[in-house]
Amino acid sequence: MSMTEQRSTSALLYLSGVTVSFDGFKALNNLSLLVEPGEMRAIIGPNGAGKTTMMDVVTGKTRPDEGEVVFDGKADLTKLDEADIATLGIGRKFQKPTVFENHTVRDNLLLALAGLRSWYKLLLAAPTKAENTRLGEILSIIRMEAQQHMLAARLSHGQKQWLEIGMLLAQDPKLLLVDEPVAGMTDVETETTAQVLREINKTHSVVVVEHDMGFVRALGVKVTVLHEGSMLAEGTLDQVSADPRVVEVYLGR
Amino acid sequence: MITRFLWQGMGPMLRVAVLFVLAIGIILPLLNQLMPASSAFHVPAWVLQLIGKYLCFASLALAVDLVWGFCGILTLGHAAFFALGGYCMGMYLMRQIGSRGQYGNPLLPDFMVFLNYKELPWFWHGFDQFWFAAIMIVLVPSVLALALGWFAFRSRVTGVYLSIITQAMTFALMLAFFRNDMGLGGNNGMTDFKDILGFSVQSDATRATLCFTSALALAIFLVISGAVVGSRFGKALTAVRDAESRMRFLGYRVEGYKLFVFVLSAAMAGVAGALYVPQVGIINPSEFSPGNSIEAVLWVAVGGRGTLIGPILGAFAVNFGKTYLTGALPEVWLFALGALFIAVTLFLPKGIVGLWSQIRNRGTARKARVPA
Question: N or C: which end of chain A has fewer CB within 10 A?
């Protein structure tokens, strides 16, 4: 117990013995994982290894059958719902860019901006000066000032990616979970995305779930290999690549 | 603060719509009251009654649009809230008859005497007072919507399942209201109304006033809806419609948003139903029939879902067609309704208003392409 308290105070994200089963199939099987504050972690593993389920557990979409999930040393994420968890400071980026197509670029950012969330306050709220300043900053970072009043549906695929990054900046989470960010991207786009994530990592902790080994290599961070819902290996990419078990389940195929 | 809230949604289009609705509600009743019956400008009472009815339908359509068009909840049971508001008004009107009924009972409405009721059921108390009925007209539909919405939205029932639940709700209410032992008139419902607030419901002056009140109610609902969808709440609401789980992961508690519009919309539907009943002179359980709710959704689809003006245009257009066709070619009406539904789905996915904004968007897109 004392061990738990010690660890959970230092780690930003703490998973211990997490098990999730769907109709008897164990999507996560006694998974334990630690992410330190400021860290960027890559999570790899073959299809069905439990990567997405792990994200669902952390963001409150799925309740674990067993195990502990603690954020920032205090919050028990197994008791909270998506909205609570997001408010605590966990952001999630989906594989497909999901922006609000029927809203303008500026409104997309306004919706994501940390702060007001309750419906009765939003009925009367006008954007404050501080909020407008922050929106202006983000618009200039993502270089979309000219498009700020354009509907997101009219943006190109690349612009939507940038808008989504802007929304993540607006949300300003302590921990950012990124689901397969480079699926379907060209090599150049993959490299740019790695740069962007490293940039974000300067001020935020990041967990990246990815298939693409080239991309994980480009990130150059500690890697956790999942297999059949449990952790198989952890270390640098070179270390885990040398692990014969990893080669067998993942790289060897 | 309230003024600012109400003003924030007032775009130019909405302003025109509100003024237009008010103009109808003022000019037509005045032409009825001030022009002699021989004049070409005289508006007969039946026209006022018809327009008043359409205005109530337009309010119902706006209520449906608020939840379906702006929040993505396809309700197939909104006529139930309309009918509940109507029943509350009906109970008030029944108690105004007093001893002028067929059986001359000063306290019990005719149908109760006929069914051997010895005393007034408990839930009829208070309905002799207009203020009490007025509160109930808003409260009864709201509470039902709150209860249904609370369970459905918290359990994350969405899409077609939610539609089925709302449809089942109105069907269940219809069956319940058909029963004589409900104490609400059974399958005959309530009719033979005499007075409203001391004025005869049959008189032209009352009809004119009711038509005006229906227009006023619609105008107020337009302003409120415009303020709601024009606020930051409204931005969050349409975002919930388009990407609900994304909003959850941004930290929005989606249930609160849905519940608020659902209850607001039910209250609006209730008021519309209450204004409808004295104008048509009857309320019976067929108002709960599932077809009515589906028709209301069709008005919205025809006019333009997710716009404030669309449902009003749609309610007027479809009901005008219905009035004309059921009179001129009664056997054609249902086919026309079906054909309309197919035509709108295929060719006008955004309704009448969508046509106009498609043309306008093409214009702004051309402008936006010019580099700044």
Answer: N
Q: Model confidence over B86-138: pLDDT tens digits?
A: 999 999 999 999 999 999 899 999 999 999 999 999 999 999 999 999 999 99
Which residues of B make CB contacts under 8 Å with A? 1, 4-5, 8, 228, 231-233, 235-236, 238-239, 242-243, 245-254, 256-257, 260, 365, 368, 372
All residues of chain A having their beta carbon less than 8 Å from the beta carbon of residue B228 are 123
CA A190/CA B114 separation, integer angstroms: 80
With an 8 Å Cβ cutoff, are B249 and A82 in contact? Answer: yes
Per the CB < 8 A criterion, the answer to whether A226 and A198 are in contact is: no
ipTM summary value:
0.87
- In the predicted model, what is the mean pLDDT of chain A? 88
Q: What is the pLDDT of residue A2?
A: 41
* Rounded Cα–Cα distance for residues A72 and A78 (Å): 14
Q: Where are the domains of chain B?
A: 2-369
CB neighbours of residue B195 within 10 Å: 17
Q: Rounded to two decimals, what is the model's pTM? A: 0.91
Quick one: which H or E segment has residue B33?
helix B12-34
Q: A12: closest CA among A54, A41, A43?
A: A41
Asked if the Cβ–Cβ distance from B253 to A92 is below 8 Å, we say no
